[in-house]
Design brief:
This protein is an alpha/beta fold. It is built from 15 helices and 17 strands. It folds into 2 domains: 168 residues, Rossmann fold (3-Layer(aba) Sandwich), CATH 3.40.50; 199 residues, Phosphoglycerate kinase, N-terminal domain (Rossmann fold, 3-Layer(aba) Sandwich), CATH 3.40.50.1260. It is 35% helix and 17% strand.
């Protein structure tokens, strides 16, 4: 995955205009940005381009306006927030679209200026990857930089179409993401351990099928582990379980055996009769779950087994929690395993890469997100990459 073009390859950009796709789909309340993490992650790219003398034009989407102008989804308040983060003015191209009006607005700005265009999804052709829209976006600049890995799994005009029309490069944030993912599954140090948790097997079939062919050990946790236990004849009581996917689970287990991938399923479980915080609970073997009980977490013996696997691994890829981590005390397995992984990563003994919405929340809950080698906040794009799928926005950057 290291065969993509980087900003360093662009040379001197004095007098040039760089069109940069960023992810500014930030949380807002009362017209104000409530979390500027995504804005801050764009700084290295914007600053690198300004240092090279470029005028920087930012493209971003916000919400789902479906090709119509929706005032509450305007990026105007984001321009104000990004200006504070950047410590320099951010010029907002209000009501400019991507035609002659936009061109005139950009021409009036100076080198090293930063301009934020209006929500790309106000354009009917954005999500359709309309070639005319991509061409009018490309006509605004001399080069294109994609710094939005989180939108790289979408073939939209601003993520893929434009990249085919002018020289295209990966931004700093995108570069970091791609390099980390390459270390995790592209050219990893072996043995590789993958931890996949979460509620349902149905949402992660492609992921599991891809991983058993690529990793040395695969730990399955969360609600999806119940489906695997049930497929092996274990009665999981009232637990969340997709009984109709038993054949799929058995097929994944058979594929793992054929490719020499060791599967780690819960050895002991924590059960309760109700799905609520601090519900009366007990630890037991998987085959001791009573009819009225549900599995809400992995037990400590399972955690010890997983930590031992981490001790053998050189690379860890993690997606999804091991239990109902948002309810105490059913967060114990996820927290203990995450802390063990973070400790090994901190000591330089493990390359630990994690991603996906629930995963980021779980690692933050365990207080270890900063100790992992890399944590991707890209959600869908991270999942599709783990599934082995080509990401249109990344493919378009390849040298």
């Amino acid at each position: 995955m290291s065969d993509f073009r980087r900003i360093e390859d662009a040379g001197d950009l004095t007098g040039k205009t760089a069109i940069v796709r960023v992810d500014f789909n930030v949380p807002m309340a009362d017209g104000k940005v409530t979390d500027d993490t995504r804005l801050r992650s764009a700084l290295p790219t914007v600053n690198a381009l300004r240092e090279k003398g470029a005028k920087v034009v930012l493209l971003a989407h916000f919400g789902r306006p479906k090709g119509k102008i929706v005032e509450e989804m305007s990026l105007k308040p984001v321009a104000t927030a990004f200006s504070s983060v950047l410590g320099a003015p951010v010029h907002f191209a209000e009501n400019c679209g991507f035609g002659p009006k936009a061109k005139a607005f950009l021409a009036s700005r100076s080198p090293r200026d930063v301009i934020l265009m209006e929500n790309t999804r106000f354009e009917a052709g954005e999500e359709k990857n309309d070639p005319d829209l991509a061409a009018s976006m490309a006509a605004l600049g001399d080069l294109y930089v994609n710094d939005a890995f989180s939108a790289a799994h979408r073939a939209h005009a601003s993520t893929e179409g434009i990249a085919r029309l002018i020289p295209a490069y990966a931004g700093k944030s995108m570069e970091m993401e791609l390099d980390a993912l390459d270390r995790a599954l592209g050219k990893p140090e072996r043995p590789v351990l993958a931890v996949v948790g979460g509620a349902k097997v149905s949402s992660k079939i492609d992921l599991l099928k891809n991983l058993v062919a690529k990793v040395d050990m695969l730990a399955i946790g969360g609600g999806m582990a119940n489906t695997f236990l049930a497929a092996q004849g274990v009665d999981v009581g009232k637990s969340l379980c997709e009984h109709d996917l038993a054949d799929t689970a058995r097929e994944i287990l058979a594929n793992a055996e054929a490719s020499g991938c060791e599967i780690l399923l819960p050895r002991d479980v924590v059960v309760a009769k109700e799905f609520k915080a601090n519900a009366a609970n007990r630890a037991c073997w998987p085959d001791e779950v009573a009819a009225e009980e549900m599995i809400l977490d992995a037990g400590m013996m399972t955690v010890m087994h997983l930590v031992a696997a981490m001790g053998r691994a050189k690379t860890l890829v993690w997606n999804g929690p091991l239990g109902a981590f948002e309810l105490t005390p059913f967060d114990k397995a996820t927290v203990a395993a995450a802390q063990a992984a973070a400790l090994r990563a901190k000591e330089g003994e493990l390359i630990a890469v994690a991603g996906g919405g629930d995963t980021v929340a779980a690692l933050n809950h365990a207080g270890v997100a900063d100790d992992f080698t890399f944590v991707s906040t890209a959600g869908g794009a991270f999942l599709e990459w783990m599934e082995g799928k080509a990401l249109p926005g990344v493919e378009a950057l390849k040298a």
